[in-house]
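re: ur question from yesterday

yeah so i grabbed the chain u mentioned. its 539 aa long if i counted rite. heres the sequnce exactly as i have it in my notes:
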Amino acid sequence: MFMSDPKPSPLEIFTKRQEFGLENSVEMLIDIIETEKNNSKRKEAVKYLGRIASYIPQLKNECFTTTENILISEDKIDLKCEAAKALGKLKNDKALKPLRWMLELKIDSVELRLAILKAIMTIKFNEPQINVFIKELDSRYNAIREFVRNHLVEVEPEILINSLVTNLKSEDISNEHKTEIIKLIGYELSSINIAFQDMNYIKVKYPKLIPRLYSDKMVLLNQITRTLKEEDSKLIDSAVSILKLLSPEINKDVIKLLLSDDFIVRKNAITLTGKLKLKDAVDTLITGLDNIYSEVSVATIEALGEIGDLSAVPELLDVLNVEDISFEYTDIDMKFYIMDAVKKIYSNNQDADFRYLFSLLKSDSEALKESIAFILGEIGNEEFTRPLIDLLKIRNLDVKKNTIIALGKIGTIDPLHSLIEILENPDTYWLIKKVAVDAIYNIFQRNWYRVKAENGDLERTLNKHIGTLIDYLKRSEAENTKVKVSLIKFLENYGEKSALIALLSRVNDFPRIIRIHASNAIKKIEEKIEERLGLDNTD
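ran it thru and got these structure tokens back, copy pasting raw so excuse formatting
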């Protein structure tokens, strides 16, 4: 005959603890833990042993001994986790030692390590425990790093930053660990929500914090410059937050590292001078423009761009002042870094005078003129239109191409006549023609809304140019395929009924792509006309 288990379950023991008696209940739970073969029951018994102990202070030590033994000696992870939770509920300081010991064993279980950390935090969270959590910032498990980070930021900023900087000094921790510490320091400083130009708030709110950081400024700077990674934006943001708070006292120290023999330190110091916008670093940075290591040169160019000092422009552009054709191919990336940096510098100086750039358009260097045309297009001021139109006379294809693209980006209607002349010139290379049509398209996009606002003179001017382009497409049977396609796309958007004849003349062209685009353009224009007629009839 089937016999039921005469022993009450752990839940029943806990529920009927008053009926059984508190001491008896504890003994019954311990008996299940020590003798029961069913793992689920043992786990449940550990759980309720931790809960029931709060009702009987005199038996806390006995409960502690049992749960500690489970944590240390038991093989099953789920039982260890339950024991860690129970120790947390007991809130016995004696549990801190075995809990920390378990962490040091490097047990490969996220669940157990989290249970231990939660227990430690529940029992006590003073400086020693904070340091335990800081140590876990180096965990290979993202869940653990997130957990400890989320709880560390709840610590009083002065206490937390003091502990973080102290740990940063350790020679026994990895660079990855230092990275996490720097990130957390920067995050904590940013979360205080202070204006770095005025430290009065932080001095009043956290009077010990600034002196603490100043006393270890070189530790912070040295570790930052050794661990900084360009691809880690959070690390860079944190590093900048820390150093901005230490500015201007730290500025000279950062600039000194620009001359470091250590390649990594030097490159990272260059990056920091840009992020901190240290104008005093410009002269030193310029000496590194032609460094044998391209990474240093690129970092230097980017830093000069971020600092935004106009005095660096001649030095930057001088790098582009070459006539060696191989330069165009071997250093093409460097070229674009320089052009982008010059653009940033002028963008950071709203009242800048552009006469220096205009003067370079008369340089003997075709490479330099090409670059200046590109830069002017990127900045996009309307005052650049006339100097760029004058540059269209240059025969060099690269100069002409960049000039046309720049005029398209700026978007004034003044160059339209010159661009159409380029298109109609039978000696013009097909690529230049295509670029010219694309620039015309961009100019129309920038100005068409003004036609809709009933600007009569503008409408007549634009329609005149549309007529010229329609006529050119109609008679351009031998034109390059890509040029034809660009013209067709233009008329698809800006052509009216008068464009249909030119488009129809291209529906039988070879290759097939021209026929497809011409047919689509005709269909779109016809739909546009029908829609307009429908609206007129409705009126």
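noticed a couple things. The chain is about 70% helix and 0% strand. also The radius of gyration is 37 Å.
anyway ttyl
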